[in-house]
Amino acid sequence: VISNVNEACSAKFCHKTAIVIDALRATSTIATALAAGASSVKPVETVMEAREYYTEGDVLGGERFCRRITGFQLGNSPDEYVPQTVAGRRVILTTTNGTRAILKSLRAQEVIAAAFLNGGACAAYAARQRRDIVMICAGSHNEFAIEDGLCAGFLLHSLLEHCISDLKMDDFGAAMYSLYNDRKDAICSTLFDSTTGRRLLKLGQSQDIEACSRRNLYHNVPIWRSGQLIDIS
Length: 233
Ligand code: MLT
Prior knowledge:
Belongs to the ComB family. This protein has helices at residues 26-35, 47-53, 83-86, 98-104, 119-129, 146-163, 171-183, 187-193, 195-202, 206-212, and strands at 17-21, 40-43, 59-64, 67-68, 90-94, 110-114, 133-137, 222-225, 228-231.
């Protein structure tokens, strides 16, 4: 498990399965968009790129400073990604940390976007690949964010419980696994108390924190294929 996004582009991760986590909120939004029937989610780094990629029928989504970007149809609240807004459509998404972490991880053999919402399915898929796994905690501006570490712990828990019995973790992974064991009955309150959670709360987005704290609501596996994330579950 790593929390320094810049490390994700290291050559040592080329043969691994990368699981990128931005529980509040980008990877939760991606899981929700695909569950609502979006045909794909295309993460891009900048607002300008998002506008350049846009073609008729696409949906432009994302945030800067946790708010919807001017001229975009959707922000970064999972609740906005419902069948009425995204079914059958490609979502072009740009967020401050999450989409950047995905794009930084592309040297890995496979890249998956995971959150609490779809963690069980992502862990099961990654286990089936029989490759080493690296979990990338997107954090915030290269700083560790507890919600991502907690979600990494949840994924490790899912790998151990359902898939891989002889899992070997690095020390940071072991710490995140213990964190999850300690907080597994208080996911929502831990997210509310986190730095990102408090920021979202201030902006009146408490419903997003609740939405992002639900475990295994979806069974999709958003995986990188030809420049975008699609559900291969
Ligand atoms: C991000 O990708 O930076 C986050 O998802 C920010 C947010 O919560 O909107």
